Amino acid sequence: MFFTLLRQWVITPVENYRLFHHFTRQDFVAQFAASIGGFLWLFVTPIAHIVIYAFVFGYIFQLRALPEFGQTEFVIFMMIGYLPWFAFAEAVGKSPGLLLEKAGLITKVLFPVQVIPVVGTVVPYLTHVIGFCLLLVYLAMQGYFNLLWLWLPVIFFLQFLFTLGLVAMLSALCVFLRDLQQIVSLLVTIWFFLTPIIYPITLIQSEGARELFLFNPMHSFVNLYREIILIGEFPLVNFQIILPVAFITYLIGGWLFVRIKHAFGDVL
After folding, report:
1. Backbone CA torsion sign across 77, 78, 81, 83
2. Among 193, 163, 191, 176, which residue's Cα sits nearest to residue 253?
3. Could you tell me the CA-to-CA distances from 213 to 15, 132, 164, 238, 240 in Å, in that order?
4. What is the pLDDT of residues 190-215, one digit of tens each?
5. % of the chain at pLDDT higher than 90
6. How deeply is 92 buried, as exposed, middle or buried, from its count of CB atoms within 10 A (0-12, 13-18, 19+)?
7. Using the 8-state DSSP alphabet, how is residue 66 labeled?
8. Alpha carbons 240 and 233: distance in angstroms, whole number
9. Phi and psi at residue 208, to the nearest 5°
């Protein structure tokens, strides 16, 4: 029974590729429907974020290069962590409403509902990977490129699996616990400040407190991006954390979703 449910979860996007592709395209295009800029916003938005944060942290707060990352400018250090986080935060933040928004479809049409959290995770990642790639192109032109960059797609994929597991879990539970919509929004904000994105972890003086950050998977993802991109090192400890956490979260979240999906129609 357990493995049957897992199989349904894993192969659904493949077996129902046309449905998955239709939903993904629909949700992706809907972000820019009726807007004058259209798909241009895919490039304008990340560039605007980079310019704004460069002005705020570089000019107003006068935050300068970080010696532990090869004298890298603070805004570059921050954006390397912020852009992948943005994809994660948007997917998780929208997860409680995924099934509620499609309640009419779920209750009237018979289709593999487990494709919805997959689409709900793919679309934010497709949107924000463009900004991350633009940043990587800029850094490569500045001479940061090294062979360890070949690990970046692997790490990004593991982050996607981790996010997808959480999205599946939260979207399923929110059908029965509607208060999760407000709780998740608050938790994502708290999680952001508990992840060293807008500050280096070296600001924390206590070694014991720093080790507690290892229990935060997003810290490991962010640190992997930064050390690989900026100083050409591969923090093995962080990778050993995210590898099992990503797959376990993906499988447990998917199993829970498929396990209780039969009750969605009654509640929605």
Report:
1. negative
2. 163
3. 39, 24, 22, 11, 14
4. 999 999 988 888 878 888 888 889 99
5. 46
6. buried
7. B
8. 15
9. -65, -40
R_g over Cα of the chain: 20
As a whole-number percent, the residues of the chain with pLDDT over 70 amount to 94
Measured distance CA(201)–CA(218) in Å, rounded: 13
The mean predicted confidence, pLDDT, of the chain is 87
Domain boundaries, the chain: 2-6+42-267
Enter the tokens of residue 105: 């479809």
Task: Give the pair of three-digit tokens for residue 260.
Answer: 């209780």
What residue spans of 41-179 are helical by DSSP H? 41-53, 74-94, 98-101, 103-108, 115-141, 152-176
The CA-to-CA distance between both ends of the chain, in Å, stands at 25
Residue 121: alpha-carbon gap to chain centroid? 8
Cα(162)–Cα(156) distance, integer angstroms: 10
Q: Which residues are within 8 A (CB) of 229 and not within 5 positions of it... i.e. 6 or more apart? A: 80, 136, 139, 144, 149, 152
Distance CA 105, CA 99 (A): 9
Sign of CA dihedral 40, 46, 49, 50: negative
DSSP 68: G
pTM summary value: 0.92
Q: What are phi and psi of 146, to 5 degrees?
A: -150, 165
